[in-house]
Amino acid sequence: MITTIVVDIEGTTSPTSSVREDLYGYTRERLPAWLAENRTGAAAPILAAAKAQAGRPSADTDEVAATLRGWLDSDVKAESLKAAQGLICAEGFRNGALHGEFFADVPPALRAWHADGLAVYVYSSGSVRNQQDWFTFARGGELASLVCGYFDLSTAGGKREASSYEKIAGAIGVSGDRILFLSDHPDELDAAVAAGWHAIGLARPGEPNPPRPPHRWVDTFADIDPSAE
Ligand SMILES: CSCCC(=O)C(=O)COP(=O)(O)O
């Protein structure tokens, strides 16, 4: 019996375009100034991690900003970039420039699962901070009250690793065979199944990741019945 649902964000709850155009665009524009202004504070661990990952220990903040912008452009899911994105976008969510964007079928499904007593968690490459803001400042009304918790690359690990799903199951204290994972990415579904989870793929019109066997694929949360898993 499924007691817990874990959802991916990009391509699953939300259009890829809303992440890449809105969040990446907002971050891209503000990265150089934000890194420079916060280099001895919130940006310090981000600068250190990005320099280490890039193999450029003596890079200055301008060079790190250019590196992080390059990672945004090629969608590198690096922890340091995602941490910066979460902190930079926090201001945009609070001043009304940014909203969490969700496919129309997602809020009613989350409400129904919550009303049925299912626990909903989020696991995304975006930082926990960014995820919380995405659900809190959802266009059309907050959705964070429907979510029990959030996991990201720093708290769970990479999304294509079975060990990350084992770690999440351990952290929430639920056996994998009671957890249903929803994602648009076949490699992530493979990893969740390898950890003993149930998994359903989202293949939404216009989204980039093609479906792949052996998973079941749907194009809307309305077609997901956790009690039938
Ligand atoms: C709204 S949280 C930020 C989303 C993000 O930056 C991202 O890379 C989404 O990746 P996902 O793991 O949800 O596909």
From TrEMBL:
This is Enolase-phosphatase E1. The keyword Hydrolase applies. The keyword Amino-acid biosynthesis applies. Pfam families: Hydrolase (PF00702). Keywords: Amino-acid biosynthesis, Hydrolase, Methionine biosynthesis. It comes from Nocardia ninae NBRC 108245. GO terms for molecular function: acireductone synthase activity; magnesium ion binding. GO terms for biological process: L-methionine salvage from methylthioadenosine. InterPro entries: Enolase-ppase_E1, HAD-like_sf, HAD_sf.
